[in-house]
Specification:
Number of helices: 5
Strand content: 25-35%
Number of domains: 2
Strand order of the largest sheet: 2-4-7-10-13-16-19-22-25-28-31-34-37-40
Largest sheet: 14 strands, parallel
Oligomer: single chain
Radius of gyration: 29 Å
Distance between the termini: 88 Å
Shape: elongated
């Protein structure tokens, strides 16, 4: 028995198709009219300065309105609980001041799609435990846009506590210099804020420039950070990008901890005190095209596994890479180790190969020949020997470095390679650094003098 015998048609009739299409077009037309009327009803308000005037204007405005502020001071904290745009005066530098009068948060955002632009935001509270901030965005503040503002005299500059897809860009954030570093707030603090983007901000003083905890799918790009504890500090944050940032004169440049699948690319660490790049329990990440100059340790790798570290330049550090605590399955190749006092510090007996597919690294202290002119040195390179291992484990042994016994030990190891205690081996050391390892960071390389 056929479908038609049951009264069932195997296709929709042309008239029904036309009816469905017409209904859909009518629905879309009404949706268009709704949003058109909504946008036409949105107003722009000129708000007079004074104490409490801005909050009154916020309470009176409708969702979608724009509040245009004057070049003046608006005193008192504000709470934005509807979709609004608050714009400062159109001057070269932010001249519209929002003064929180040293109480709690200067601006609290509890609604989606809020824009804050061109303001001078100052004088939050000073209680770190209360998370006092210049701008505090709750988990209801999805898609907030914080752009081209100046922050000063705040405990925390911008705190993203739970919103999705927020953007913080082109702001100037000056943190505290008065408390102990660990008692100061962060420039930008992110907690559980997936999809948020932090870009092109300038951050100075305070504790950490950008601190992220318990988040994912974030992008930190083009930020300049100086005179801080950590420039960028990752904790339990995954699947994110850290690119084209500049860290100068901080305690540590880029610290990635307990985080997986991070792309760390084309960043600059210049003059950071202790460590340029620091990886602690960071796994499955790509560290590529970065430049570190003048730190105590260019890179410190502690129990970090399955990472790819390539085409970076590590220059003028006390130690190029300090590699320790069972870090395994890392691919390290194409890097340039230039004028570091100790190129590699590795305390262990396992043998680890630092080359991939016939490409090793460049070592400025490697006196080698390349008879066949293929760009690869004719002998393998081992950056540390048995004497290094002894000195690292027993620092007082430095007193014996020039003794005849140590010289005999060095000679014996060179003549009998089997005495080598394991460690780092580069089987394909490069005769010249890759151009990418020195010039990939074109945006920021000119900052090094």
């Amino acid at each position: 028995m056929t479908q038609k015998q049951h009264g069932i048609s195997s296709s929709v009739s042309p008239s029904l198709n036309r009816g469905l299409a017409g209904g859909l077009l009518l629905f879309l037309f009404f949706v268009f009219l709704f949003f058109l009327s909504f946008s036409l009803n949105a107003k722009q308000w000129q708000v007079s300065p004074g104490n409490g005037t801005l909050q009154k204007a916020i309470d009176s405005a409708q969702a979608g309105d724009t509040l245009q502020l004057a070049s003046a001071t608006y005193s008192g904290s504000i709470n934005i609980n509807k979709r609004l745009s608050i714009l400062g005066a159109k001057t070269k530098k932010p001249s519209t001041i929002i003064d929180g009068e040293n109480t709690s948060h200067v601006i609290t955002i509890t609604a989606a799609d809020v824009t804050i632009k061109g303001l001078n935001i100052q004088h939050s509270g000073t209680v770190l435990e209360d998370e006092d901030s210049g701008i505090f965005i709750t988990d209801k503040g999805d898609r907030a846009v914080i752009e081209a503002n100046h922050f000063e005299f705040n405990q925390i500059g911008v705190y993203l506590k739970g919103p999705d897809d927020a953007i913080v860009s082109n702001n100037n954030i000056i943190g505290s210099q008065y408390f102990r570093v660990n008692d100061r707030g962060n420039g930008i603090y992110l907690w559980n804020t997936p999809g948020s983007i932090i870009k092109n901000n300038t951050i100075r003083y305070g504790r950490d420039g950008i601190f992220v905890n318990g988040s994912r799918n974030n992008t930190f790009s083009g930020n300049h950070m100086s005179d801080l504890r950590f420039a960028i500090h990752y904790m339990y944050a995954h699947d994110s990008i850290v690119s084209n940032n500049v860290s100068r004169n901080n305690h540590v440049g880029f610290a990635l901890m307990f985080s997986d699948r991070i792309m760390v690319k084309n960043n600059l660490s210049s003059g950071d005190d202790k460590r340029g790049l620091f990886f602690n329990f960071a796994n499955y990440s790509v560290i590529e095209g970065n430049r570190v100059v003048g730190a105590e340790k260019c890179v410190f790798i502690y129990n970090a596994n399955f990472n790819q570290i390539n085409d970076n330049s590590f220059e003028d550090c006390q130690i190029g890479i300090h590699f320790t605590a069972g870090s395994e399955k890392n691919k390290i190749y194409g890097n340039a180790f230039i004028n570091n006092r100790t190129q590699v510090k590795y305390v262990g007996t396992r043998s680890i190969e630092w080359s991939k597919d016939g490409q090793g690294n460049y070592w400025s202290d490697n006196v080698a020949f390349d008879i066949n002119d293929d760009g690869i040195a004719d002998q393998i390179y081992q950056p540390n020997d048995l004497v290094d291992q002894i000195v690292w484990q027993h620092p007082l042994a430095k007193l014996l470095l020039n003794s005849p016994s140590v010289q005999i030990l060095k000679w014996a190891q060179s003549e009998f390679p089997g005495l080598h205690p394991g460690g780092i081996t580069d089987s394909h050391p490069m005769m010249q650094p890759l151009s990418s390892s020195l010039t990939s960071n074109t945006i920021v390389s000119g900052l090094i003098k």
